[in-house]
Write a structure and sequence with these properties.
The chain has helices at residues 44-57, 83-94, and strands spanning 10-19, 22-28, 65-73, 101-110, 114-123, 129-130. The protein has 138 residues and is an alpha+beta fold. The protein starts with 9 loop residues before the first strand and ends in an 8-residue tail after the last strand. Residues 5-106 form the JAB domain.
């Protein structure tokens, strides 16, 4: 996030289903080239390759490991989704391409390197809802 400056960067989230409506982010792709100061659209081809690699590394166990959604930064704005973010995510879950739900993770660095983030769940046919983020301690 530091190298991107005021440009938005982002990518795809890949994760593990833990049961009882809980997921862990296991991997993510990063696109440092395509963002502007107020928008981010990822390169589908590049990120699809990252997803394929993730499937290969997890033994194509789609019930346990799968696409979780999208992430991007809001370096100059709040970590709430914009109307463009909401429309893009609803487009993903309403496209009918085997994605019934997807998460949107938005982050930014604030003063004194303070990290802020939010996550929203998008489900086909429903309004987006904010979900809890739990940071695992290692």
């Amino acid at each position: 996030m530091l190298n991107a400056g005021k440009r938005e960067i982002g990518g795809m989230l890949m994760g593990e289903y833990l049961g009882e409506q809980a997921f862990r982010i296991v991997d993510f792709s990063v696109d440092l080239k395509r963002g502007t100061t107020s928008s981010f659209f990822r390169d589908s081809d590049e990120h699809d390759l990252a997803l394929q690699k993730f499937y290969e590394e997890t033994g194509s166990d789609y019930k346990r490991f799968n696409y979780l959604g999208e992430w991007h930064t809001h370096p100059s704005f709040s970590v709430d989704p914009s109307i463009n973010d909401i429309n893009a995510m609803q487009g993903i879950v309403n496209s009918g391409e085997n994605v019934d739900f997807a998460f949107l993770f938005i982050s930014r660095l604030r003063w004194f390197w303070q990290f802020e983030c939010s996550a929203y769940l998008f489900i086909r046919g429903y309004q987006p809802i904010q979900v809890e983020i739990i940071v695992e301690k290692k």
